[in-house]
Amino acid sequence: MSDRRDGGGELPPGALSALLREVVAAPPDAGRGGLSPGDVVGRFEIVRELGRGGFGVVYEARDRELGRAVAFKLVRPGSGAGGAAGAEARLLREAETIARLSHPGIVTLYDLGKAPQGPYLVMELLHGQTLAERMALGPMSVAEALRVGADVARALAHAHERGVVHRDLTPANVFVCEDGQVKLLDLGLAHAFGHRRLSGGTPAYMAPEQWQGAPEDERTDVFALGVLLFRLLSGGLPYPEDGGRWIGGARRPTVLAVSQAPAVGPLVARMLDRDPVARPRDAGEVVKALAALATEAARSTSSDRPGAPLVGRRLAVAGWVALGVAVGAVAVLAAVRLAGVGPPLPGRPDGRLVVALADTDNATGQPALDALDEALASSLAASRRLAVVPRQRLLDLLWKGPGAEAAPLDAAGLEAVARVAGAQVTLVTSVRSRGEALLLEVRAADVASGRDLFSLRETVADRAQLLPTLSRLADRVRRELQERPEEVAGAQVALAAALTPNLEALDHYTRGLDADGHLGELATAVAEYRRAVELDPDFGAAHLQLALALWSYGRHGEARAHWTAALAAVGRLPPRERLLLEKARARNAGDQDELVRGAEELAARLPDDPMATCAAADTLLTLGRAKRAGELFLRAVATDPGHYWAAMGAVRSLARAGRAGEAVALARRAVATRESPGNVSTLAYALANAGDGPGAREAARRAFALAAERPGASLYVTWFAAPALMAVGALDEAEQLLVAAAAAARAPEDRDAARQQLLEVLSLSGRRREAEALLEAAAGVEAWAARPGLRVRLLEVGRDRRAAKEAAAALRAGEGMRLKARELALLGDAAGAAKAAEGLPPGSPQERQYRAARLLAEGRLEDSLGLQRELLSAGAIEGLEVGARTLLGETLAALQRDEEALAALEGVEGVWLMEGAVPLDAAVNVPRALLLRARASQRLGRAGEARRALERFMAGWARADADLPLLAEARALAGRIGDRP
To answer: Cα–chain-centroid distance for residue 804?
Structure first.
């Protein structure tokens, strides 16, 4: 059976009812078989599985007749789809109405049918994330929360008008598309197919009548919508999730206090009343109530401020049009904020106005002038009243579909994406030739209404005056947007001095920022930054970015030279670059308190700049403040979902917190936003951490393939996609891809990075001689010389720690090695360790790690154990995740606490992905960890577990050097275990 409707037309009458009649008698376990890529059902070809839930399995499929991608939901038959004759008749009538619902906020049902695997529904394929996934990324602004709530209310109202009740409204059943559109999922369908309360549903969203088995109607959905609004606006739930016991208690939900929209609180309280009669009758009444409170707020605001400036009135009207009646009141209140009074702007707790800039409209024929928009953005960044949407975020929203990268971020393109990006005002910079002179113009428009706000023009006699003129225009823009004159005067950027008077240098600098931030092509960015400083040796911002990039590559000597040049220009740098420089300077000076203050200032001063936010987060992470760092990385992702550094930092934070599923969802969102080699590598990392070996391998292959297509993009792939392959045991594949990447690299930096990861693969495989040869061949390369610990750790591979005498000698002779005191203590050199520890700040992560190692060496196992656990729980292990976990397991085993040792060592083969590990830490410690597991399991009488640990050891070392001591130890242990059960 298969009925269809094409392009959104209605399904034939009776189609869904007929399908239900076929399914109603099916037992709940019928049709459990799944579908695989390539399977064909009717005219639909399965492409891949997207997800599973209590309702069934969802696949991406291709409609072979219409040539479009669709969502193919294979429904798991439920129980009770039928029932008494009257109930069944009502259910079938409702099912037919569901099939004919047509509303922008309700997912479109294209087709349905029954396959051997079970009944199926074919719906539009959505791109974005569920509201549950969005909420997991961090709190929403009030404006966004009210917009989502209003959109859900309107969709529900459409259904309620036609007699359809959702019955399972939760964040998991609300979808937020990439373009900001909100859609309801599974509206009434779970009920129709006998799936009351999906296994993924949240009990806290159930109305009292649902818990009590009483009749349900539209007011059931109103209650769930009230819970949804309460959580979006407050971050919490109105009632506890205690299995419905709250129904019999006296507790009532707290009335929300929303300063931007005060009337929302009492409305939500009505929606959450335990008595259905006291609630709004249906979602339509909720929509009317939201409209009424918006109108009242607008009337109140206009009477309070009859003399509001013109720009404020324009934005008030615009906010109404853009956000709809539910958010109109917030937009009106925002207009008053522009006049210098009133509550903060919607979505901006700091009260700033959100602006978006188009690329420069350059009609001069001089390509160097293309960078004027970046210069204007740098000048506006000095304002504490304006927030500039990152250009990369705008491009992500604009560049969709094959070949769409050619779409320009011009005035039309900006207009198409500004509202979705949360901007309230757009700015378009244009430059025209007027004989020998240039005409420079900045036009401002209100996003919601499309109306022009103002246009500022100046004539420039020659190019040397172009940037100073643009600086004056930036100050005028700020004043036109109601920034106080004293605030403008107190925070200005002289562009020619802050950046460069050389427009060609500025153009290369801007291209470098694009290559790094948007495309993840660090080697390309290095080339552009180098060209910028060649053209203007005094270009401090370019020196700073070049220094940071070169430091990532391990080219520390070259980086220091550019660092010195950036320091010389610190007094005239733009705000972001100045704060980045100050943060890095405090880090190098070892002043932890100053470093924390600098990082927090950077995050607070530039909350909409993902690069600045990530730099602050990365700094806090190195200080052991993992929780705060994770919060900032998630904030950066919310600003720019496709930003590589933000996505990787957030994914690693979620993985560290044990939230592997959320990490994978966030990584997939980053790839959907921007399929760059770095983001696909992030997905490979997330999948490896979640234990999805096949998925990790597929993503890693894709990352390497993308890097081969885009010159200069392989660094992030070698940093994360290759380790993902190692973590899932695909060492041979990692080796092949790295060898190919090194051979094909167009930049020496990327070639060196690939070869360093190859060193990891060889060492992890126990092929120490090959690794030593590779290290010897690269002895003269600065990037390798900058990591003196490589030689030391390579000498530890395959040996018991106390037997690695050569490693101890090399470590004593080495300079500038991280955690030198800790390593010497672990290698048994107490005197050398004490000398190396003399300069460590008391209480610092390095000093505490040294102390834990010293206590262990002294035999004070319990004291060392407590400090080790403290360091691990605080995340203060500086990239030594696998080594720290192995050391903890070793200490517990020495205390004969084998059960705890096994728990500490569980999954240690993969955890080194967590923190971007210290080079060769995994190669040194993974074999030790596996042997520790085998010994502990043997002592507990679990020969099978011991054998499995040894099998993993041997599989990883199938090509290892035959004379490694740990290999001989593993073979001896395997002989002792033998075939005993």
So the answer is: 41
